[in-house]
Amino acid sequence: MTKEREIKINADNAEAEKPTEREEGEFNETAAEVEIDSPAREENETGVNEKTVAEKELSEEEKLKNRVAELEDKLLRTMADFDNYKKRTARQFDEIIGTANEKLIVELLEVVDNFERALEHGKDKTDFKAFRKGTELIFHQMKDFLARYDVRPIEAVGQPFDPARHEAVMQLPSDEYDEGVVAMEMTRGYLQGNRVIRYSKVAVSTGKDKEKKEEK
User: Fold this and answer.
1) Alpha carbon of 205 to those of 32, 181, 216: distances in Å?
2) pTM of the shown model
3) Residue 160 neighbours by CB under 8 Å, 6+ apart
4) First to last CA, the chain
5) Which backbone phi and psi does 19 adopt, to 5 degrees?
6) What are the structural domains of the chain?
7) 75-112, pLDDT tens digit by residue?
C-alpha cells in the first residue's frame, strides 16, 4: 500500500513538472521576440534608416535644382519684359516729342502766315510806317508765342559777365561799363524756366581805354 502511494506521488510530480501547451506557446513567443530584437535586426533597421536619409537628401538636392531653374526662368522673363518696356517707352517718348513738335510748328505757322501777308501787302505800297507797324505786330505775336512756352530773353548788357548764361565772344574797352561787365550783346540768349536754352553771345568790357587814362 505504501509503495503504490509513492509511485502515484512520483507520477503526480512528473506531471506537474511537465510544461503545459500554453506555457510552451508563451515560451516560443518570447523566444521569437528576443530573436527579432537581436543585433541582426538592429543592423538591418540601421541600413534601412541610412537609405531613407539618403533618399531625403537627394530629394532636397532635386528641390534646390528645381528652385534654381525656376529662378533662372523668372530672371530671363523679367529681362525680356524690361527690354520690351524700354522699347515701348522709347516709342512713346518719340510720339510725345512728335506731338509736341507738331503743336509748336502749327503755332509757328501762324507767325509765318502773318509774315507772308505783310510782305504781300507791302509789294505795291511804299508806306514804310504801315509796313513797320505790321512787322511790329508780328514781332509781338512771336513774343507772346514764346511766353506761352515760358521762354524769355536773358538780360546781358550792363550785367556782370556770367559764364552760366553768357558766352564771351570778345573784349573791348568801355567808358560806360567797368571791367568784367557785359558791354555789348551780339546774339540774345534765352531761358526756358530756369534752364538756359541759348547762351547770350556778348562782348565783355575791359574798363576805360588805357590811352585815355594815360592822357588824363
Assistant:
1) 120, 5, 20
2) 0.52
3) 180, 181, 182
4) 181
5) -70, 145
6) 48-149 (3.90.20), 151-216 (2.30.22.10)
7) 999 999 999 999 999 998 888 887 777 888 888 888 88
